[in-house]
Design goal:
about 160 residues; alpha+beta; Lipoxygenase-1; 2 helices; elongated; signal; Secreted protein
């Protein structure tokens, strides 16, 4: 009984604090609530490196494809050396198609490396897609494992 009263009091306090700090005119769009016809307006990726470093001359390509396999956004560069346990980015992808939210939800992000010689990396990839209505979709791909033998991996967008 006391626990229920404590939760009730806490909920009332949180509601009062929220009401006092968020203007009545503020519009908040939840992550998945989108305006009809929302299209891709921006895309970026960030990487956290684990264990191994990326050599300065290893080419990195990040590609966003829609459910039909069409390329929506892409970036490809060597980006210089990435040391182990470092954070890199965010890097802006070029928007190639202003693809709809519906065609990108459930689609894929592809990370590819093209090393000169041997290069083994274990990155954690995060991709953020921003749409014309302010909503977002993302890829959060932890503990990837790429090298000269296994150059490419795909992960879902949600």
């Amino acid at each position: 009984m006391r626990l229920r009263q404590a939760f009730s009091a806490l909920a009332g306090t949180m509601l009062a604090v929220t009401a006092a700090t968020v203007p009545a005119s503020a519009t908040v769009l939840p992550h998945t609530l989108r305006a009809p016809g929302a299209t891709l307006a921006g895309a970026n990726f960030s990487i956290h490196m684990d264990h191994d470093q990326k050599d300065r001359d290893t080419l990195v390509t990040v590609t966003i494809r829609d459910l039909n396999g069409n390329t929506a956004a892409r970036i490809s560069s060597t980006f210089g050396q990435w040391d182990q346990y470092s954070d890199q980015g965010p890097f802006q992808l070029a928007i190639l198609n202003h693809t709809s939210w519906e065609l990108l939800k459930g689609s894929q992000t592809t990370l590819r490396i093209d090393p000169h010689g041997n290069n083994h990396i274990e990155p954690n990839l995060y991709v953020d897609l921003v749409f014309s209505d302010g909503t977002h979709l993302s890829s959060d791909c932890p503990q990837l494992d790429l090298d000269q033998e296994s150059r490419q991996i795909a992960c879902g967008i949600s």
